[in-house]
Amino acid sequence: RWVLSLEYKGSRNFMSALRRAVEVDFKDKDKHKSQGLYLLTTGIPDQETHTISAYVAEACGGFDLQLHVCLFSVTEGTDSSGIIPARYASPRETASAFKEIVQAAKGRFHWFGEAGIFESDDITSIISEMEKAKNYSQKCAFLVESLKQRS
């Protein structure tokens, strides 16, 4: 709701936005079983990762709140605004920082760009499940084959 009234000012003040969301907009958090926040971003927050992770762990630990991050890596040179962020990190460093923050919040991390998906916790989980199913299927096939040979 409140984010629609905000205007871009060149800041990535993640802590301010998160505090606002958790401390003001989730006033009725005790009435809900589960809630999630989704951060859509293109760069690293202004604050240090360990500071954000500590706050997120504390804020999300009191009730069932998960923070999910969708990081979109923009091709370099496409930002025509000329605004330099207060803190810079490479795309890989940015992804690493957000993965740490998401782990503290028991959420999910998704990283994509114009070329496609670079990393996604959901896709990783699906691939893991598929690998387990494949291994189980191979074990079952081996067991069936051994039973056939005994007969």
TrEMBL record:
Protein name: VWA3A protein
Organism encoding this protein: Pycnonotus jocosus
